[in-house]
Amino acid sequence: MAGLECPCCHAWAGEYHALGCPNGQPHEVWVPPTARLVNLTPHAIKVAGEDGETILEAAPSGQVARCTTSSEVVGEICGIEVVKTTFGLVDGLPPAEEGTIYIVSSLVAQAADRDDVVAPDTGPTAIRDEAGRILAVKRFQRF
Fold first, then answer.
1. Where are the domains of the chain?
2. Where are the alpha helices (DSSP H) in the chain?
3. What string of pLDDT tens digits covers the 143 residues of the chain?
4. Rounded distance between C-alpha atoms, residue 117 and residue 93, angstroms
5. Each residue's pLDDT tens digit, 62-96
6. What is the spatial distance between Cα 28 and Cα 41, in angstroms, rounded to a whole number?
């Protein structure tokens, strides 16, 4: 897939770099050059290189993967219920398909625990506007 580049070592899709980048960061992912990215979030996902320029943009696919939830009332604060929410199974995540990588929320990625599932890394490396809204991420993450 043209334009899919490791943001720290600049290896392109199809280049095996699991031994680590020149800066010593390990990689666990080898992205085949024919990989198909499917965005299962309701948001467009922009990935930027170190220079801040967009290197990949994934529009929402129209299908959203989510975790089921259940809630139990566990208390009250100032007359407002407090619930304990438990996350369950993943809903809306297709079966693994060779050559396909699914982009999902961090919560879904944690629950799915699959090698073909990644989430945008919205931590300190994300690019944000003045109001703190995410404009782009620089990498994906696995759990």
1. 36-141
2. 106-112
3. 334 555 555 554 444 444 445 555 544 444 555 678 999 999 999 999 888 888 889 999 999 999 999 999 999 999 999 999 999 999 999 999 988 999 999 999 999 989 999 999 999 999 999 999 999 999 999 98
4. 9
5. 999 999 999 999 999 999 999 999 999 999 999 99
6. 23
Whole-model pTM above 0.90?
no
Task: Look up residue 65 and give its amino acid.
Answer: A
What is the number of H-type helices and E-type strands within the chain? Answer: 1, 10
Distance CA 112, CA 119 (A): 11
Q: Is 19 helix (H, G, I), strand (E, B) or coil?
A: coil
What does the angle CA 48 – CA 50 – CA 51 come to, to the nearest 5 degrees?
85
Nearest to residue 94, comparing CAs of 86, 85, 104? 104
Q: Helix, strand, coil proportions of the chain in percent (round to 5)?
A: 5, 40, 55
